[in-house]
Amino acid sequence: MEIVFNLAISLPGFLIGIVFHEWAHAWAAMKFGDDTAKNAGRLSFNPVVHLDPVGTVIIPIVFIVLGMGMFGYAKPVPVNQTRFKNYKQGMFWVAFAGPIANLILMVLFCFLTAAGALYIPQSFAFKTVALQMMNFAILINVVLALFNLIPWPPLDGSQMVKVFMDYNTARKYENLERFTLILFIFLWWTHAFRYIMRPAAGFANYILNSFIYALG
């Protein structure tokens, strides 16, 4: 029952985070002249069109079962970089759009959590559950933002870094993707990822407390 409860608490924030992340990539690409994602039906808030069997279903369930919280990813949106009006600016901002979207959601959920904690009456039966859901939404969105900014292929941060590389250097840099799985396993099982995320979680907590102070 605990696994089912954790899944129910985590799923809304997780789906909102990954869907908005991919939608932002598609929206930014369209603004820079590439409508590939739009034509593929990815400029949408419908979770189904962004679902990846492994990243959106299997990995999140494994994380929940192992008691590690929920984590995963959606299906990457298709982008044709050759159609950008400005190639380098397009690459940079389309990649950055996903993490920015998650940071915006983090701030929004901080506000909603603060407002809920202060103004939802204690007599409301689902107050505790609602606040737990929003607290997880804060956490998952700040994690998604920072995680995707890691400059390691194929994460968004690597696409942003490649803008400043010449062609040959960028191709060699892309070869690091072969070791991505090994890197992620190392980060998770050594708990190094927790230390990476700790400043981000502290920042999110600061934003939340600021809203509580302002609204209170």
What does this structure look like?
This protein has one domain (2-215). It is 72% helix and 0% strand. It has ten helices and no strands. The protein has helices at residues 2-31, 36-39, 47-50, 53-65, 87-119, 127-148, 156-162, 167-174, 180-189, 192-215.
Summary of the model, kept short:
The protein has 216 residues and is mostly helical.
Draw up the topology in text.
Elements: H1 2-31, H2 36-39, H3 47-50, H4 53-65, H5 87-119, H6 127-148, H7 156-162, H8 167-174, H9 180-189, H10 192-215
Helix pairs in contact: 1-4, 1-5, 1-6, 5-6, 5-7, 5-10, 6-10
Low-pLDDT runs of 5+ residues are none
Average pLDDT:
92
Please give the oligomerization state of what you see.
single chain
Categorize the overall geometry: globular
Please summarize the sheet with the most strands. none
Q: What are the secondary-structure elements, in order, as H or E?
A: HHHHHHHHHH
Tell how many strands the DSSP assignment holds: 0
Rounded to the nearest angstrom, the distance between the terminal CA atoms is 36 Å
What class, by secondary structure content?
mainly alpha
Strand content: under 5%
Count the DSSP helices.
Answer: 10
**Structural domain tally:** 1
Global Rg: 18 Å
Residues in helices, as a percent range: over 70%
